[in-house]
Amino acid sequence: MFDFCGLNLDSRIFLAPLAGFSDAGFRAVCAAYGAGLTYTEMVSAAGLIYGNRGTSALLYTEPVCSPRAVQLFGRDPDIMSRAAGDELLRGFDIVDINMGCPVKKVFGNGDGSALMARPDLIEEIVRAVREGAERPVTVKLRAGIALGHPSVVECARAAVRAGAGAVTVHPRYREQMYAGQADHTLTAKVKSEVDVPVVANGDITDAMSYFSVRGLTHADAYMLGRGALGRPWIFGVLGKLDALSDEEIYAADGGVKREAAMYAEELTEKAKADFDAFDAVKRHVDVLMKILPCRTVANVMKLHLCHYAKNTPHAKAVRLAAARVNDVEDVFALAEEHLKKG
In the chain, what are the domains? Predict the structure, then answer.
């Protein structure tokens, strides 16, 4: 157990908010496999306030997904405050504010990573959300907007001054979108400059990348996004590795000890061998069927199926078959044919 914003969490390995992927079903699967905290896809504060039809589905959550965080985006402090206090958010333990989305539409509206040009507005928004939320408020930041011009430390300080309980750093610039390499020296800099927990996010996809980011940042928690797609078992693996001390992991020269690397490989191979992708798909779909029409569930699962099959002998067959999926029966038939163990 460790304390994060007043919550007692079983693991320091979190599922990131991923637009189009961290739906209620995938969050439930990742929680079952050991994610210590799960985040919703980013939710428009304005959409929540003005009754956007799709918002309630984004905010559905299963009991297994506790503790859980909801991520809001917006630039108007009043709307953000009102959204944070909305009844639909009562089931969430943390309200996270998206200040990192690089997508053109979001950025062009002044939301997401565009806020990183306005530390004063960041401070105002965090303060307003705290007043509305009546629970811990956190923020998720990028390195900055323009490549080579980091503003993350200044923005993190502004958020903490306004009462943010934790800061997540995805150290890519807005200009990079999702390409290039995350610069975790910036995560380490934020860690040294603020007195709240710092979560490292970006390029953590396996045991060795986790060791690398941990050794560089000494963060308080670690967040996986794309690295978890189709691989929910990774949370259990990294959770076990996270229980190791630095002395057990790192050699005197900063490299990873052979014993730690071997242990990581053993855990990974066992988790992959034990993973039943068909069971994960079934659990995933069962949750989505509670909140979405059958046809919508099938569409949501198309990309997820490809990720569940990635790096298996059936990856190409699943990718081709997924294009023809039209209903839930198709999803189960494809998963049973290509993903079921035995």
Answer: 2-265 (3.20.20.70), 277-338 (no CATH)
